[in-house]
Design brief:
Blueprint (H helix, E strand, L loop, with lengths): L2 H16 L2 E7 L5 E7 L1 E5 L1 E9 L3 H8 L2 E8 L11 E11 L5 H12 L3 H7 L12 E14 L1 H7 L4 E3 L8 H6 L5
Antiparallel strand pairs: 1-2, 1-5, 3-4, 4-7, 5-6, 6-7, 7-8
InterPro entries: Pyridox_Oxase_N, Split_barrel_FMN-bd
Organism: Chondromyces crocatus
Protein name: Pyridoxamine 5'-phosphate oxidase N-terminal domain-containing protein
Length: about 180
């Protein structure tokens, strides 16, 4: 991998690991668009995925059930000196799904362990598995990233043109890169 591609993937890893919120764009059966912001945790095993939970009846959840192809945007404006503009953004396209009950335990554990490393705090926030299965009101969802783009900061600095840079395939991002990602690092 070229150094330039590695640097772009590092920026993507920082955004995935440190942002914590993604705005999802879904569409209903009637073709009505909808945007929702959800708290997520990233997971890299083969290709990057975003994991979150939502109410089953939420508009974006119903839209995902009907049309799993969705887009998302992750954006930070607090990067200070670690970005020439103090900000950075990642746009993505992929496929989302509700996590089936048989796959739920490791996803649920990963989500809560990542968001709440302290076991005592995790116990306070962790909802029972029954909330996410059967008639439970919530579901865990995962978005598998198929394509993604970064804000072209270099271009903006030259001529103020707002455009994106296509990143190498999402499978190019390793779990190690995500684990080690820190702003400015």
């Amino acid at each position: 991998m070229r150094a330039e591609e590695a640097a772009l993937l590092q920026r993507a890893a920082v955004l995935l690991k440190t942002t914590g919120y993604v705005t999802l764009s879904t569409v209903s059966d009637e073709g009505e668009p909808w945007a929702s912001t959800v708290a997520y945790t990233p997971r890299v095993e083969g290709v990057p995925r975003l994991i979150w939970y939502s109410m089953r009846g939420a508009r974006h959840s119903r839209n995902i059930e009907a049309h799993p192809a969705i887009c998302g945007s992750i954006f930070r404006t607090d990067l200070g000196a670690s970005s020439p503009l103090g900000l950075d953004g990642l746009q993505l396209r992929g496929s989302a799904r509700a996590v089936p009950a048989q796959e739920l335990p490791p996803i649920r554990d990963y989500f809560y362990e990542t968001l709440f490393p302290d076991e005592g705090v995790r116990r306070q926030w962790m909802l029972p598995e029954s909330e996410f299965t059967g008639d439970g009101p919530r579901r865990f969802y995962e978005l598998t990233i198929k394509e993604w783009w970064l804000l072209d900061v270099d271009r903006w600095l030259v001529d103020k043109v707002d455009q994106r840079i296509a990143l190498p395939g999402p499978a190019s991002l390793s779990a190690d890169a995500l684990f080690e990602a820190t702003p400015g690092g």
